Amino acid sequence: MKNIYKEKVQIGPLAWTIKPLEPKDCVEFDGLCSVPLEAEIFIDNNLFGERAIDVLLHECLHAMEHMYDYDMTEDTIGKLGNMLGKLFVENPWLCDYIKEQIKKENGK
Length: 108
Description:
Blueprint: E1 8-11, E2 14-20, H1 23-26, E3 31-33, E4 40-43, H2 49-67, H3 74-90, H4 93-105
């Protein structure tokens, strides 16, 4: 199983660190995104499955919003995160296809 807390998400010129959400914050949130200066994404490490996917995508969308100076409502980000999560859950072959295309792009 991939440990996302050892990974970074490259968004524009910044590599966003993924960190576990503090237990005190898990009561109110499943994830948080810092400002670009800090470039940190926090995810509740008790999440799994589709919810974990949705929250990670949701927080990445917030990071993209910051990086590209594009304002979206929380409702829009929530819906996009959920729809993208559902897309990958219902079509697991997409991840393999995307990896294959990235390898071709990078000449591997």
